[in-house]
Amino acid sequence: MIEPDFHAGHHPYAAPQLPPAPHQDAVDVVIVLADAGLTLTTLIPMEIFQAAGTLWDALHGVRPAPRFHVRLASLSGHSVQTPYGYTLRPDCSIEDIDKADIVVVPGAAPSRALAAGHPPCLLSWLRLWHQQGACLVGLGGGVAALAEAALLDGKEATAHWALMPVLMQRYPRVLWRTDYALTEYGQILCGTGVHAAIDLSLYLVEKFCGRELALRCARALALNLSDTLHTNHAVRPLSRPHADQVIRETEDYLRRNMHRDISAEFLAERIDLGVRSFIRRFKAATGHAPGAYMQLLRVAAARELLENSAAAVSVVSTRVGYSDQAFFRRLFKRHTGLTPSAYREQFGNSGKRHRAAVADSGGACHDPPSQLSVSASGTARSDGR
């Protein structure tokens, strides 16, 4: 029997002379442990979230700054058995959790995942954190718990292929997508299994902490990322979880209208609020003032264009809504640390192919970090409001 000693505060990558310095805005992650839970879909998210802000820094002699606070929680607080005889020891019970930004429900053995009736305490606990705005992540058989909690009704979702026939029959109100490896609907994300655990974990690192940190995390873990994440949906970059549906709709509106110059006054009028009230409510929900948030959307869209297209920088600037190219270049460099041209050289797909060709021919080069490429668009005002 193996009993791993996992603790959120312990980071094995940190050099002794450079102890981790917890980030003051660390994202709280809870990974639910249950008997017959599959080990990989439990440990992969934990490993990736723990590595964010630590592994890359430790490898480069920089003091690690953990960006995620990860806890393992079982239903009772007691250890659980995996299908293969391993024992996993939690940090606490789910009832001890008082803060959660992300909740992960890992996969389970098929017999467990398809068993009729998940524990009522788990279902009510998942509903509670969904109501409080946490991101809920179901992996493989873990999606069944979200479905039984009625959190997937009317939403697109996916799960492990072997479970789909039963899940489709048992939960007909869910819009099951057998053709998707990953789905995102609001604050609920579903994945099919092990590869999805990797992709969704890195996706959430980017969503909560930004592209650069996600790139470094992926590179440090020697991960190659597919394009699965952004094939079927777009995301709100850097928006923390919240339950304000009116502000969520405003965020969606901004993503759909990237090219337009939209003022805070216009946004406030759309939802029948005064400008000051709207700005306070938007910042309370997203963590950003409307203007700053909209700039993040445009920079994210510009990054994707620079990574995946050959469009001139001037064209990219116009497409994301900035007619003043000089302003766009300054803004882009302030957010990324690189000029648009330098960013394309380092992270663009054409640049990667060129460097790979040089390496194949015997030339010296270094591959760029593996990339997350998540579609994002929006609209921004340059006044930061």
UniProtKB/TrEMBL annotation:
* GO molecular function annotations of the record: DNA-binding transcription factor activity; sequence-specific DNA binding
Print the organism lineage.
Bacteria, Pseudomonadati, Pseudomonadota, Betaproteobacteria, Burkholderiales
The record's PROSITE patterns line, in alphabetical order, gives: HTH_ARAC_FAMILY_1 (PS00041), HTH_ARAC_FAMILY_2 (PS01124)
Annotated HTH araC/xylS-type domain residues:
248-346
Give start-end positions of Polar residues composition bias.
Answer: 370-385
Instruction: List keywords of the entry alphabetically.
Output: DNA-binding, Transcription, Transcription regulation
Q: Which domain of life is it from?
A: Bacteria
- Positions of the UniProt region annotated as Disordered: 346-385
Name of the protein in its database record: Helix-turn-helix domain-containing protein
